[in-house]
Amino acid sequence: QVQLQESGPGLVKPSQTLSLTCTVSGGSINSGGGYWNWIRQHPGKGLEWIGYIYYSGSTYYNPSLQSRVTISVDTSKNQFSLKLSSVTAADTAVYHCARGRTLVDYWGQGTLVTVSS
Amino acid sequence: EIVMTQSPATLSVSPGERVTLSCRASQSVSSNLAWYQQKPGQAPRLLIYGASTRATGFPARFSGSGSGTEFTLTISSLQSEDFAVYYCQQYNNWPLTFGGGTKVEIK
Predict the structure, then answer these.
(1) Per-residue confidence of chain A (117 residues) as pLDDT tens digits?
(2) How many contacts, defined by CB atoms under 8 Å, are there between A and B?
């Protein structure tokens, strides 16, 4: 059973960079299709797809966030990471890491990141 | 991007009742439509894909239908464990987009 766990600071100051890591267990990050996503959920709202990375390192980002997003992968650690720069209060959300290119079949529990000074 | 609109936002239902949730796409997504179930404090869980194929672990009381721009998720007889938020998602075009969700709550 594949499991994903997000980690990172729960509080980020405005204009700074949000950084999160997702650790994959129960399977190799190179397998299961090899596509790994970040998806966020604003408080009380719906889901917003941020982007994905293939285990080889190729990426695709949501155009609405593309200028601020970087997703990277470390296959040796079975981890992938999210960096979101120049954050504002509008970036306050629960951030989920997840597996899948179009359909998302495994999700992390999510971690709340609050942007506040 | 394709905008997904779900209705209603909240549905108050008694156990045993039949439930119908709607999802509309701003342009055709063919049958590339998925539904997810999310319970409080949990991650979403893939429920339906290809508009009508049930994912592993979900009982037959869940069914999906539709194509193009109009989709429906039906729960034939609501059980206590089905109270949750349901999201639709299109994967016909990039970026992937989700609806705002329908919360199914106890009446």
Answers:
(1) 899 999 999 999 999 999 999 999 998 998 767 899 999 999 888 899 999 999 889 999 999 999 999 999 999 999 999 999 999 999 999 999 999 999 999 999 999 999 999
(2) 45
Which of A81, A83, A84, A91 shows the shortest CA–CA distance to A116?
A91
H/E run at residue B56: none
Identify all chain A residues contacting B89, using CB atoms and an 8 Å cutoff: 47, 104
Q: Provide the 3-class DSSP secondary structure of residue A4.
A: strand
Interface membership of A45 toward B (CB under 8 Å): yes
Among B94, B47, B30, B87, which Cα is nearest to A37's? Answer: B94
**Is the distance from CB of B8 to CB of B99 less than 8 angstroms?**
no
Strand partners, B50: none
Distance from CA of B70 to the nearest CA of A (A): 19
Amino acid at B62: F
CA angle B81, B86, B89 (to 5 degrees): 145
Q: With the CA atoms of A84, A86, A88 and A90 taken in that order, what torsion angle do they form, in degrees rounded to the nearest 10?
A: -40
Q: Which of A2, A5, A6, A49 is best to mutate for the B interface (most B CBs within 10 A)?
A: A49
